[in-house]
Amino acid sequence: MGLFFQVALDGLFNGLLYAVVAAGLSLIWGVMDVINFAHGEFLMIAMYLSYWLGFIWKIDPLVSSLAGGLFVFLVGALTYKLIISHTIGKSAMSALLATFGLSMLLKNICLNRFSPNFRLLQETALGGKTFNVGGIIVPLPQLVIGIVALALLYVVYHLVKKTRLGWAIQATAMDKEAAELMGIDTEKIYLLVFGLGGACVGIAGGLLPSYLAVHPEVGGLFSLIAFVCVAMGGFGSIPGALLASLLIGLVEAFAGFYIAPVFKYVAVFGLYLVVVMVRPRGLFGW
Amino acid sequence: MKRRFFGKGLLLVLVSLLMVGVLAGTSLADEKVIKIGTLFPLTGSCALAGQRCRAAVDTAVEVVNNAHPELQVPLAAQEGIMGGYKIVLIHADHQGKPDVAKSEAERLFDQEKVWAVIGSYNSAATKPASFVAELKKQIFMCGCSSSGALTERNFKYFFRMAPTDKTESLEFVEFIEWINETKNADIKTVGLIYENTEFGKHAAEEGRKAAEAAGFKVVADVAYNPGATNLNSEVQTLKAADPGAVFGACLGGDYTLWVRTMKQMDWLPKVSLNYCTGYQDPIIAGQLGEDANYFMGGTGYAPEFAGLMPAVAAVEEIYKSKTDPSVPFDSDSIQEAVALFILAQAIDKAGSLDPTVVAETLYANEWESPLSMGGKVAFAPGGQNIKAMSMLTQLQGGEYKRVYPADLADTEPVVPMVPWSKR
What's the pLDDT at B1? Predict the structure, then answer.
């Protein structure tokens, strides 16, 4: 029984990590109808920032994650200003291709500047630390990422649902022209949303070097799973992204342990297909 | 007037371009050049290893093309081969993807007109790329791809320098039997963890065969998708089965994730024996720090082997100038340099650029190879180097210590591995 709970806990932690990565993606899609293909690379650059801050100035990822959030907020805002704003009002494909190009650019810049080396931070506040609760091992880095993910999702959800800024974001998502007629600066809203999406993934990326190696390809699978979480949860829905991410994390862990590790992603993508077939707009989509 | 001037200008440019093309063609034709393609994962999850393999081939070409009388390797004293032919490398990147490897091999042969290809690190990429070469009756030199299946195809133009997974599996089992006898290790079960690729699957298959043939029970068979975001269920599966020994085939970042996940789950087998993987990568070992210690693996070269392979050090200096001065050759990259040296010797000896003649020469001779453990290279039908050797090392204090065979060892192995809680 202990093993069952251990696997469940691992699954929940994975799910929470996916949720915070997916939240930013969901927000951007929900408001702007833009699929940000560079989302995984946003995660990667936050990881690099955290790694270098830790490596050069011995700043712990717990602190660097804030810098990661801020930095990727700026990267997101800049991405909107320099790239995405030119694609608004054009075919959805142009934004998709533009962000795909951006993802290649970011990946290759890191490859060129930092080489393909796998970089691991040693001696971090959380790295390798665990505690035992009734025979179940709780890894501290994943626990902290899980708590941060929940807090971040709550903040984003609260921001969107309960604040004037959030109402403006919702209004912009529903009808851009009507929102403009009501005096909402939609340009600023788009900029903020892209920045916020980046900040979510930036904070997660900043924490990850506590236990995960940093390299130019690290964002790939995270971004693929984040896309699945967003599509499964319903585009634009933060609670949907959270539920879908938790489901995916649990399915991945249980299928990996009770069927075979090699089938864990088969089960994840199988679940996604079933949800999309039964409910094409996703669990919480409208 | 303007239009006439423009027309004349355009004509002049075209004629100039044509002249440059003709002259360049003439100079290339006059030059005695052998174009050889390299095909490694220069981007993607194995890019680190791929770039080092490319640098190793660059190093070998530097030695072959220029006179380096100070080096104790064949062809170093002369300039070029076969009366002054210089080798020119054309580099290609397969990104670790078999389909890209196939199309890049085709491009190298068809468009770049290379005479042979060296590569491709990942066995999964080497397989289709070497198939392209075989169809075209062109030589494919493989340094370090270790899947035994590659040399079981009866290809005539394929040659591999490194020992195979089969050789390493037998060595792993021999080692376990030895520590059971001499160190009372009491290991009866084996677990396998491997990436779900050509390399990983074949390594695991050979590991299972060797273990079962020696009477060990394989209690866990864990395949995973490379580049995973976590390896929790993989390590949980191993931990639940608790094998005495684990044979690992985890490359690059997956290796670091595997080690760190085992630490988080506070579990280790008595011995962890690794194929040609992240274990052999000195950078990865350095990044893991203390956590890398007490893991073991088959090793074809490490700087600690300097006493056994004295010719390497001077060549390694050239290699370091092409990569990172702090990074020495590793087991994989050095095999790619060997591949180029052996090919160059064969061309020189054959005195011909007919691939069939050179392939026959490769089979017919035993080659001097001071960069190989054992110092010789010779090929069996199918292209496997039958002189390939490796020995088992264990990381102790961040250094690759030779631990088996006992007669070549410089250190006693630490068995069982020191538990995480006592490090």
Answer: 47
B264–A128 CB contact, under 8 Å: yes
The model's confidence at residue B7, banded by pLDDT at 50, 70 and 90, is low
Picking from B286, B275, B257, B244, the residue whose alpha carbon sits closest to that of residue B417 is B244
Mean pLDDT of A30-47: 91
Torsional sign, CA B311, B317, B319, B324: positive
pLDDT at position B326, please?
Answer: 80
- Residue-range domains of chain B with CATH: 32-163+307-377 (3.40.50.2300), 166-299+391-422 (3.40.50.2300)
CB contact B260 to A (< 8 Å): yes
3-state DSSP of B345-378: HHHHHHCCCCHHHHHHHHHHCCEECCCCCCCEEC
Of the options 1.10.3470, 3.30.750, 1.10.287, 1.25.40, the CATH number for the domain spanning A2-278: 1.10.3470
Closest CB from B253, B264, B324 relative to A213: B253
Inform me whether the C-beta atom of residue A264 falls under 8 Å from chain B C-beta atoms: yes
**Dihedral over alpha carbons A212, A215, A219, A221 (to 10 degrees):** -70
Q: Which of A14, A116, A252 sits opposite B48 (nearest CB)?
A: A116
> Distance (Å, rounded) from C-alpha B33 to C-alpha B20?
19
- DSSP 8-state code for residue B118: E
Task: Work out the angle at residue B291's Cα, subtended by the Cα atoms of residues B220 and A62, and round it to the nearest 5 degrees.
Answer: 110
Segments making up each domain of chain A, as ranges: 2-278
pLDDT at residue B158, as a whole number: 97
Interchain contact, B236 vs A7, CB within 8 Å: yes
Q: How far is A112 from chain B (nearest CA, A)?
A: 10
d(C-alpha A38, C-alpha A34), whole Å: 11
Chain A window 73-92: which residues touch B at a Cβ cutoff of 8 Å?
none
> pLDDT digit string (tens) for B21-34?
444 444 444 578 99
Residues 6 or more apart in contact with residue B74 via CB below 8 angstroms = B341, B345, B367, B368, B369, B370
Interchain CB distance below 8 Å, A7 and B233: yes
Residues of A in contact with B224 (CB under 8 A): 261-262
pLDDT reading at B5 higher than 60: no
* The pLDDT of residue A34: 85
Instruction: Give the pLDDT mean for B88-99.
Output: 94
Smallest Cβ distance to A257: which of B223, B233, B324?
Answer: B233
What gap in Å lies between CA A149 and CA A69, rounded to an integer?
12
Contact B227, A216 (CB under 8 A): no
Q: What is the pLDDT of residues A97-142, one digit of tens each?
A: 999 999 999 999 998 888 877 888 888 898 888 999 988 999 999 9
Contact A220 B227 (CB under 8 A): yes
Q: How far is CA B84 from CA A34, B78, B339, B351, B359, in A?
A: 59, 9, 20, 11, 21
Instruction: Answer whether A10 sits within 8 Å of B44, measured CB to CB.
Output: no
- Least confident among A13-17, A135-139, B16-20, B254-258: B16-20
B35-47 pLDDT per residue, tens = 999 999 998 777 8
- Angle at CA A237, nearest 5°, toward A206 and B229? 40
**Conformational region of residue B325, where left means phi above 0, alpha means psi within -120 to 50, and beta covers everything else:** alpha
B51 vs A contacts (CB less than 8 Å)? 115-116
| Residue to substitute from B233, B254, B322, interface A, most A β-carbons within 10 A | B233
pLDDT value at residue B92 = 96
Cβ contacts of A252 on chain B, cutoff 8 Å: 233
pLDDT of amino acid A135? 87
Q: DSSP secondary-structure letter at B246?
A: E
Q: Is the pLDDT of residue B19 over 80?
A: no
Q: Widest CA span of chain B, in angstroms?
A: 97
